[in-house]
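User: tokens in, sequence out, please.
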């Protein structure tokens, strides 16, 4: 492909990468797919093809899993000193920063997000998780446990636990944060001593491919430790989840697909971790710093075009401040510059695909037909070939509306007032969803903040902020928002097994 069709100035490495044939990465080598087929990758701002990627299938997955199995069983990674593993994992973080400009551009071209956002958030957060996990490589520990067996009186035992790598990990990542999700998956798995087969989303495979290429060119990982197979969910993702040699599946994506992954993984009862959907509440009390709350609530839903599992899509504002809050968010929405992610003036790019565009547009029309009042946005346009949906604010919504109950995954917020000061009733309304990923509470009353945080059934509660992430903080959900946690030392539980050893002294 001639990168000149992009109509954007891109890093030389980006142009070279886009024009190259994209193969599968298995056992330390770039190989052709078994099918000989490929699929197109588009720029969501134009709908035009920007690259072709190999369409992997079950036979490719089998090769990749066997390569990961061989690498794991050989001990080439698991038996390497933890200090040395930590140095290598840290190096990957350095490589991400070194290639930050091109990775940010690939994220923008592939996903549609503003390149400035990718450069300021996605890239540094990705390198940071590798550095954070590198520090844990030497700190995965067991315990000694005082032990006495009641049915062997007088005998003495020495008991201890070992925390060991779970084995071969199949990792399936989404399209909303392609680079960051690859980092969230790969870094802890490597830290624990596991080997990996990564399957990126077919909509956005480019940054994961380029990251793998960068790691390969650096020559720092033994062959088979990291493998990557591009392709579609039914052709590559499902076989990966089902494969009997895979010991653990890690999936980030929709709740619907997460349930399918769980069933597919049940054949050999492999470990499963799931980071799934959300319908997160943003709760604003009348004593809050209202200007800060307005800006925060707008960011909560409009960040990454609303294509964020923890997006603050349900807005609850006290009736005393509801009009000011909803009108303030509407004003912000109306002034957001929508356009191609590669344009420096763009504040919100296109949605990732026509499929997602049609889905979000359908929810907007559903909201209108169910009586919701559009006070900002409500319009969408794909006449240019791009998948543009303008930031939208609905007022006069209620819990029975489809767009209030279901995850939209777009820049659409549903606002509703509350009057009752009872924290129990507020929490009940906040918890009135099948999801439980995140929430934010806006108040100057620290007692109210702590009490409500304890009542909200969600994996993350932010107070006077939203979308604040750090590699040290665990992230995951309650209810249909998933199983397990990403990031922090909690994530290592996803990739390790605990073994008890007892010695008769």
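Assistant: Sequence out:
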């Amino acid at each position: 492909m001639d990168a000149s069709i992009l109509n954007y100035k891109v890093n030389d490495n980006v142009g070279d990468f886009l024009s190259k044939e994209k193969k599968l990465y298995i056992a330390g080598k770039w190989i052709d797919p078994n099918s000989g087929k490929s699929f197109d990758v588009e720029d969501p701002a134009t709908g035009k093809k920007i690259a072709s990627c190999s369409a992997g299938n079950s036979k490719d997955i089998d090769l990749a899993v066997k390569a990961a199995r061989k690498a794991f069983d050989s001990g080439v990674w698991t038996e390497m000193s933890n200090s040395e593993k930590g140095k290598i994992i840290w190096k990957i973080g350095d490589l991400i920063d070194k290639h930050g400009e091109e990775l940010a551009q690939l994220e923008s071209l592939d996903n549609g997000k503003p390149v400035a956002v990718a450069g300021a958030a996605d890239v540094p957060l990705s390198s940071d998780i590798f550095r954070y996990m590198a520090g844990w490589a030497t700190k995965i520990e067991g315990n000694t446990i005082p032990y006495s067996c009641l049915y062997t009186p007088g005998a003495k035992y020495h008991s201890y636990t070992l925390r060991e790598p779970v084995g071969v990990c199949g990792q399936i990542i989404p399209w909303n944060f392609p680079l960051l999700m690859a980092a969230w998956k790969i870094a802890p798995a490597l830290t624990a001593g596991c080997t990996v087969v990564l399957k990126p989303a077919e909509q956005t495979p480019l940054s994961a491919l380029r990251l793998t290429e960068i790691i390969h060119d650096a020559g720092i990982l033994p062959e088979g430790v990291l493998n990557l197979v591009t392709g579609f969910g039914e052709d590559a993702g499902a076989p990966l989840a089902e494969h009997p040699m895979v010991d653990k599946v890690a999936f980030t994506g929709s709740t619907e697909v997460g349930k399918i992954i769980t069933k597919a993984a049940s054949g050999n009862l492999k470990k499963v971790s799931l980071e799934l959907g959300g319908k997160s509440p943003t709760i604003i009390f009348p004593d809050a710093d209202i200007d800060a709350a307005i800006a925060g609530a707008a960011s909560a839903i409009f960040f990454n075009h609303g294509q964020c599992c923890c997006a603050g899509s349900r807005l609850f504002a006290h009736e005393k401040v509801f009009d000011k809050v909803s009108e303030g968010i509407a004003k912000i929405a109306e002034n957001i510059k929508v356009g191609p992610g590669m344009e420096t003036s763009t504040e919100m790019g296109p949605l990732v695909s026509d499929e997602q565009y049609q889905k979000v547009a359908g929810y907007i029309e559903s909201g209108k037909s169910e009586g919701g009042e559009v006070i900002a946005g409500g319009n969408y346009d794909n006449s240019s070939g791009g998948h543009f949906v303008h930031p939208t604010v609905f007022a006069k919504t209620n819990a029975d509306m489809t767009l209030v109950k279901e995850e939209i995954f777009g820049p659409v917020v549903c606002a509703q007032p509350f009057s009752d000061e009872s924290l129990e009733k507020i929490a009940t309304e906040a918890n009135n969803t099948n999801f439980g990923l995140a929430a934010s509470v806006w108040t100057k009353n620290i007692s109210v903040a702590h009490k409500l945080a304890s009542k909200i059934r969600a994996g993350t509660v932010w107070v006077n902020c939203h979308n604040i992430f750090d590699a040290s903080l665990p992230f995951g959900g309650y209810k249909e928002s998933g199983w397990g946690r990403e990031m922090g030392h909690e994530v290592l539980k996803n990739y390790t097994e605990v073994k008890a050893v007892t010695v008769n002294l």
